[in-house]
Design brief:
heterodimer, A: mainly alpha, MetI-like fold, 2 domains, 14 helices, about 75% helix, B: mainly alpha, 15 helices, disordered N terminus
């Protein structure tokens, strides 16, 4: 075994000098949330780094909806879930069809649609929020889950189409030709050749749209208002309205709400990192 | 990554497929129709409606006379110019740290992505409580260490805005670090080996190898981050709520504030005022991405 030289030790020390602050910086807000979730109320407000009596009681209160702010917890969780899954499915359908049409069928005007979609992608979502709110009012969709679903599909589709178009441009044209030689119709080509080949990108895009909808706060809070209609993030924001908010319960609910997207992210990291982050910025 | 290298013009050589099919163009239009409908109903209509609402010159006069608007415009500029550039510099630096091959750095990079992977609402609220002057963790630690009371973080407009920027950086730093890491990893390794043989210093390697190959990516990322940050509603709204005394609003939260006050025309006018800043950035990005 070779003893490390002084130089190696110095390099390692310098790396640690960066690594430790990065670790604390990253974990502190998340740890703080976790700390509140496992602390009884007295401990949470004492500023300790570890509670004297860690407990799962807060989770019990949340799951049994035993607090005024939490009386609709399960239905709000369900709302978040339904909306996220619907947005994922609808975006996937719309974007796959559009990408197939633009990239494989070379539909006339497809390039224009792509450019318009890209333009939408670059409009900051908060700028579109106010007109979107009024538009949904005009359509009579306010306080209806469809308002949020359609708004999120609108926001998620442009990027989805762009990524899927980039991916499908790379599929060799000979595949389509061979399928048509064998007598495949356009729909069969779409269903039996295109979809299976695009699977990795489709997983990435479906996850992207699903997480986008699950995490959305601004549109959810503008478009939905009834306690039994809102999604979890809106319910979390509503905690702030009271002066004596039960912060330990707020953090517990927030922790529960944050777990599924984090789990999904790590489960699909392989697809997300390859398909999405690189696609976001074309170097 | 491979996605970024694709080139539509070379991917499908020869005549377009549609020329050899009987009804593909019809199918193309049918398959494109759902998106076109969504686009017309939820992008074109709202945008036109918004512009129509913002048509009165009087709204702009009212905006000009509203000190909160001026403050929000300045805050937005501070957010973009100082906040984003600082964030991108840190991301550039950290991308160099995370490409080091050590087992513990690999593990750290898995944790480092957490702020990006979890929803922003609970973490922003968590930080909001950490900054609570009486009960928050930060001030309690300050009290334990120094025996003095910490600052009232969110009650001072400058500190509160800084905290909103810090919150934004916390949330989006992992994403940009990851992107810049892919840029760094794409640089051929033998360039660095050759530089080592020539005895190049750390700074020379960065100056003559890393930076020239990453410059375009870095600038694109900065612009993109600026466009997106214009719409960062959550960091400001949930941390400071625009307060104290409406001094920490940015354009994104100001629009919602006017909406709450039932001044819809002002809300739209405020957004229209930002368009001269946004549209050139958007145009530039589209030129880059739609090639």
């Amino acid at each position: 075994m070779k003893l490390p030289t002084l130089r190696d030790v110095g390099t390692e020390a310098r790396l640690l000098l960066i690594g430790i602050p990065v670790f604390i910086w990253t974990m502190l807000p998340i740890y703080h949330m976790f700390l509140f979730a496992i602390s009884p109320k007295e401990d949470a407000f004492s500023g300790k780094l570890w509670p004297a009596h860690p407990t799962l009681h807060n989770f019990e209160i949340v799951f049994n909806q035993q607090h005024y702010f939490l009386r609709d917890f399960w239905i709000q969780f369900w709302n978040s879930l339904v909306i996220a899954v619907s947005v994922g499915a609808l975006t996937l359908f719309i974007a796959t069809a559009a990408a197939f049409s633009i990239s494989r069928l070379r539909v006339p005007g497809g390039r224009w649609v792509m450019n318009f979609a890209l333009f939408t992608y670059f409009i900051p979502a908060a700028f579109l929020a106010v007109p979107m709110y009024r538009t949904m009012g005009n359509y009579g969709l306010l306080n209806n889950h469809w308002a949020l679903i359609l708004a999120m599909v609108t926001i998620a589709s442009p990027y989805a189409i762009w990524v899927l178009k980039q991916a499908s441009d790379k599929l060799p044209v000979e595949l389509d030709e061979a399928a048509i030689m064998d007598g495949a119709t356009t729909l069969q080509l779409f269903r039996l050749v295109y979809i299976p080949l695009m699977m990795p990108s489709l997983v990435a895009i479906g996850t992207y749209a699903l997480l986008l909808a699950w995490n959305e706060y601004l549109y959810a809070f503008l478009l939905l208002s009834k306690d039994t209609e809102v999604t979890l993030p809106v319910a979390l924001g509503n905690f702030l309205a009271a002066d004596d908010s039960p912060w330990e319960l707020l953090m517990t609910t927030g922790f529960i709400y944050a777990l599924p997207p984090a789990a999904i992210y790590y489960a699909f990291k392989r697809y997300m990192v390859g398909g999405l982050t690189a696609g976001a910025v074309k170097s | 990554m491979a996605i970024t290298l694709s080139n539509p013009d070379h991917a499908i050589p020869g005549a377009p497929l549609s020329a050899r099919l009987t009804t593909p163009q019809v199918w193309g239009i049918v398959l494109l129709a759902p998106y076109i409908l969504v686009f017309l109903a939820f992008v074109v209509y709202p945008v036109c409606y918004g512009l129509w609402l913002a048509r009165h010159p009087s709204s702009y006069v009212a905006l000009y006379n509203d000190p909160i608007f001026a403050r929000a415009a300045i805050n937005t500029l501070i957010f973009l110019v100082i906040g984003i550039n600082f964030k991108m510099l840190v991301a550039l630096f950290l991308s160099g740290f995370f490409v080091q091959s050590r087992a513990w750095i690999k593990w750290l990079s898995v944790l480092f992505i957490l702020p990006w992977a979890v929803p922003s609402i609970p973490t922003i609220l968590s930080v909001r409580f950490m900054l609570n002057p009486e009960w928050g963790m930060i001030n309690q630690i300050i009290f334990k260490l120094t025996g003095e009371d910490g600052p009232n973080w969110l009650n001072d407009p400058t500190v509160a805005l800084t905290m909103a920027i810090v919150m934004h950086i916390w949330k989006s730093l992992p994403f940009w670090t990851l992107i810049l890491m892919t840029g760094r990893l794409a640089i051929p390794h033998d360039l660095f080996e050759a530089a080592d043989v020539d005895g190049a210093s750390w700074w020379q390697k960065f100056r003559f190898i890393t930076w020239p190959s990453m410059r375009t990516l870095y600038l694109t990322c900065t612009l993109l981050s600026m466009i997106w940050t214009l719409g960062d509603f959550n960091s400001v709204y949930l941390l400071t709520g625009g307060g104290p005394a409406d001094l920490t609003h940015v354009l994104a939260t100001l629009g919602i504030r006017y909406l709450r006050l039932d001044q819809l025309d002002m809300s739209m006018a405020a957004i229209v005022c930002a368009l001269p800043l946004v549209l050139p950035l958007v145009y530039f990005m589209m030129k880059r991405l739609s090639r």
